[in-house]
Amino acid sequence: MSKKKPAKTRAPKAAQPELGERDESQEEQPAQHIATYTETRTLHVPLTDAERLDAAAKMAAAQHAYIDLCTKFKAVRDEWKGKIAEQESIRNENAKLLFANEKEEDVSCVVTKDYEGGTIQIKRADTGEVVAEREMTSDEFSELPIGEGESGGEEEQ
Fold first, then answer.
1. How far does the chain reach from its first CA to its final CA, in angstroms?
2. In angstroms, how far is CA 107 from the centroid of its own chain?
3. Do 110 and 155 contact (CB within 8 A), yes or no?
4. DSSP code string of 13-75
5. Is 8 helix (H, G, I), strand (E, B) or coil?
6. Residue 86, phi then psi, degrees to nearest 5
């Protein structure tokens, strides 16, 4: 059994308009190859007067807040700069101490002037360590205490 194909039927062709005539039947119906839809786009839109006033007020408030924050920041920055400088100084002083492995300190010393030998000896009072020994100058010889002569004199402190 063979199936018969349905006969193709064609719609009657509309009469083609004559040259210079318009076919009004096609104008009334939208074309099938055009699609229309709605979408949102970001575009430049002029501000309204109210929007301009609002933006100006916000800008002025932000400028005042900016100036206030800058002033506060400068004060805090200066305070912290001082604190940082203080700690740098402490660090550097202690680094010098560690590098030198010694410090300068006032220490009580005993000075012994030996007029016979013509020397001066300086010893630490706490440890007895001799820290300096040198020849006496002519001015120091002339400082011989009166009445002490050959006896050696007293220790000066």
1. 146
2. 45
3. yes
4. PPPPPPTT---HHHHHSPPTT------------PPPHHHHHHHHHHHHHHHHHHHHHHHHHHH
5. coil
6. -60, -45
Per the DSSP assignment, residues forming a β-bridge with 130 are: 123
Residues 87/95, Cβ–Cβ less than 8 Å: no
Q: Mean pLDDT throughout 4-21? A: 57
Handedness of CA 78, 83, 86, 87 (dihedral sign): negative
Question: Looking at the chain, how many residues does it have?
Answer: 157
Place of tokens 């001799």: 130
Instruction: Please state the separation of Cα 60 from the chain's center in Å.
Output: 28
CB count within 10 Å of CB 85 equals 10
Taking a C-beta distance cutoff of 8 angstroms, is the pair 135, 126 a contact?
no
Q: Residues 109-157: pLDDT tens digits?
A: 999 999 889 999 999 999 999 999 999 998 888 887 766 555 444 544 4
Contacts 24+ apart (CB under 8 A), 93-96: none
Q: What is the mean pLDDT of residues 30-39?
A: 83
